Amino acid sequence: MIILLGAAIVLGSVLGGFLMAGGNIGNLLHLSEWIIICGAGLGSMIIMAPKKILLALFGQMVASFKGVPYGRDDYESLFKALYELFVLGRRNGMVALEEHVLAPQTSAIFQRYPGFLQNTTAMEFVCGGLRPIIDGRIKPDQLRHLLTVELERMEEESHAPVGVLRSTSDAMPGFGIVAAVLGIVNTMQAIAGPIETIGQKVAAALVGTFLGIFIAYGFLGPLAANLEFINGSRLAYFKCIAECVSSFANGQAPLMAVEFGRRSLEHSLCPTADELETMLKGLGGGPKK
Question: How many domains does the chain have?
Fold first, then answer.
């Protein structure tokens, strides 16, 4: 909704100013200019990116209308679920986590936190991080590097669609110039005609330049920046998980393992140490320091 509000303000302010100056909205509705600008922009996106990236971009754009993906409630569920898991592993050994990691959908712990359980990507990240430790395939001190590699891959995948959108935004003013040049060509062909006809054709050419610049700096550029913020918020969630899991695997007590994750958060999402301890009190037998 915030994105729609911002877009409405941008569009309203520009068109409102145009009307206040005595403009006519009909003068901006040159279908040929819209076809040139929008068609060239869409075509350039198809040329520069494979289908997978374009679909990812569409998915990110749709998700952006929902706002930031993770809030304090999501982190609270995450900390509680991980803490209960860590307490079980601390008491009964890492092998006790096997049934929860191999079949998270039937885990009694994860089922208490349906929001976290339904986040399949996060569940796979948690279980994928703990599984090599439970199986004994890697040493605990190697887990952080393993999770870092996966986080870097996730970051690259999230940036690729945004890069396509930014490149398209950068190209839009150029397409506006193309539309304007084509409009001037048409104007030159009618140079001997009535002055009204020449004026209409020049106006159409200028509309092409306007659209290219307006779409680039009023919509596509800001949307790309918004996607960057949202992707950063999503990545921060997984970095928090990585801090918790790797800290626990390296011998930290359950409460301290979650504390490592808490300290990785930005201030607006970060509960205080006392709030965290209160939050975890009574879970899995109470906080284990």
Answer: 1
